[in-house]
Amino acid sequence: MTTSSLLILGRGSDPASERGVSCPGELPPASDPTLVERARVAKAALGDRLFVLGHHYQRDEVIQFADVTGDSFKLAQEAAARPDAPYIVFCGVHFMAESADILTTPDQRVVLPDLAAGCSMADMATYDQVEECWEVLEDAGIADDVVPVTYMNSSADIKAFVGRHGGTVCTSSNARRALEWAYSKGSKVLFLPDQHLGRNTAVLEMGLSLDDCVVYGPNRPGGGLSTAELRDASMILWRGHCSVHGRFSLDSVEDVRARIPGVNVLVHPECRHEVVRAADEVGSTEYIIRAIEQAPSGSAWAVGTELNLVKRLAARHPDKTIAFLDKTVCFCSTMNRIDLPHLVWSLESLAGGEVVNQITVDEETARYARAALDQMLALP
Q1: What's the pLDDT score for residue 27?
Q2: The 3-state secondary structure of 108-166, one letter per residue
Q3: Homologous superfamily of 35-118+334-362 in CATH?
Q4: What pLDDT shows up at residue 32?
Q5: Cα end-to-end span (Å), the chain
Q6: Distances from the Cα of 273 to the Cαs of 49, 246, 268, 277, 306, in angstroms?
Q7: What's the pLDDT score for residue 251?
Q8: Amino acid 380: pLDDT
Q9: Where does CATH 3.40.50.10800 sit in the chain?
């Protein structure tokens, strides 16, 4: 459990970090025209021994080989529901594969095709930083009143920290239920690591005011907050965000309304507060998919989430106008590290009897992280 170090591009790597990690072995070239067939053959050779999970934000070339698609927690649950599959290939990012390892059996092997597929949001809260934050809360005399809640988009270390301190994990679908549970246990919540999901849920769904929320900055002494500010706050938000959803702005919303008359603006709750307020609908990735599927033919939608998913929705529903909320292309750069060459390499390695890029969470961390995940599953 160490603070992640910054690495200059091309000058070294840190195997314990999500940054700058290269895969061992020889990857097939991205231009290889046989990649699709090679993936198909390797997957067929593995048969029931293999279960491939694909996050909604993955490329189409990868998602076509997924046995199940979904958001991060749904996929971890799906992995746990397949105890007879010794190999779980997780086409997503590092924290998702960690959760799958925590929830699967000791005999199963979870593989991440590219170890450099991390998550910038998860990187914004390290274990040491959160421990230091807790010490600040103790010094302010409020730690006993604080219940920690972490978003699913966090490392196993952070989930374990929350589990040790009697907190819970949440998703964008059940954040309100998680916060209601937390406030039944204490008068304050430390919400990690996405400030926008925490703020939007607290203010727009639970009736708290913006004045009830403060933002703890892990790179500033005392989080940049006074003792009085911490004592007065009901919601202590971590200064973290999603690099994709955080880019959408009020200008984006106003521009798309001007360009597409009658458009419905649908955004993820990881977006900024002013963007969510200006939208017509807000919801999780699964909510966004359902809303588009159930929308009437001929309707127009501007969707504020990752571009791979928006493009896929547009292709699936040609009877509707489906546009990306921002004019600028915005893929999730770390999700897009999982490409066909990495997938083919990992599948062919498994078919040849070699387990590559296995994701493992140590026993103690897994135990406390599992406690936080189980608390989420037990939410009313």
Answers
A1: 75
A2: CEEECCCCCCCCHHHHCCCHHHHHHHHHHHHHCCCHHHEEEEEECCCCHHHHHHHHHCC
A3: NadA-like (3.40.50.10800)
A4: 80
A5: 32
A6: 44, 10, 11, 6, 18
A7: 95
A8: 80
A9: 35-118+334-362, 122-241, 245-324
Q: What is the pLDDT of residue 24?
A: 53
136-166 residue pLDDT tens: 999 999 999 999 999 999 999 999 999 999 9
The residue whose two tokens read 């040849």 is: 352
Question: Taking the model in full, what pTM does it have?
Answer: 0.88
Q: Tokens for 105, please give them.
A: 């059996």
Return the pLDDT at 14.
46
Confidence (pLDDT) at 77:
83
Q: Please provide residue 267's backbone torsions phi and psi, each rounded to the nearest 5 degrees.
A: -130, 160
CB 178 within 8 A of CB 168: yes
Q: Which fold has domain 122-241?
A: Rossmann fold (3.40.50)
Hey, what amino acid is at 73?
F
Q: Which residues of the chain have pLDDT under 50?
A: 1-22
Alpha carbon distance 338, 72 (integer Å):
15
Q: What region, left, alpha or beta, does residue 254 occupy, with left being phi > 0 and alpha being psi -120 to 50 degrees?
A: alpha
Which spans in the chain are helix H?
35-46, 60-63, 72-80, 94-103, 120-123, 127-139, 156-164, 175-185, 195-206, 227-232, 250-259, 273-278, 285-294, 307-316, 340-351, 363-377
CB 359 within 8 A of CB 112: yes
What is the pLDDT, as a whole number, of residue 217? 97
Q: Output the CATH code of domain 245-324.
A: 3.40.50.10800
